[in-house]
Amino acid sequence: MKLSRKEIKSLLKEWNLAWDRHDLDSVMSVFHDEIFLKTGQAPM
């Protein structure tokens, strides 16, 4: 699936708004069902 620049900007705007609302369902809706996201551990 290829998105236009306008579509990408719109998607990112909606994603950021969902993040700010703590709306996990909307945040996760942009990811594939089988995605595995791993982030690094913050140094202590």
What's the topology here?
Elements lengths: L4 H16 L3 H5 L16
| Number of structural units classed as domains | 1
Count the helices. How many? 2
Helix content: 40-55%
Secondary-structure element pattern, one letter each: HH
The percentage of residues in β strands lies in under 5%
Largest sheet: none
Shape: extended
Amino-to-carboxy terminus distance: 40 Å
What does this structure look like?
48% of the residues lie in helices and 0% in strands. The chain has 44 residues and is mostly helical. It has one domain (1-32). It is extended, with a radius of gyration of 13 Å. The chain starts with a helix and ends in a 16-residue tail after the last helix. The model has no long low-confidence stretch (mean pLDDT 88).
Which terms would index this structure?
single chain; 44 residues; 0% strand
Short characterization:
This protein is mainly α and 44 residues long. The chain is built from two helices and no strands. The N and C termini lie far apart (40 Å).
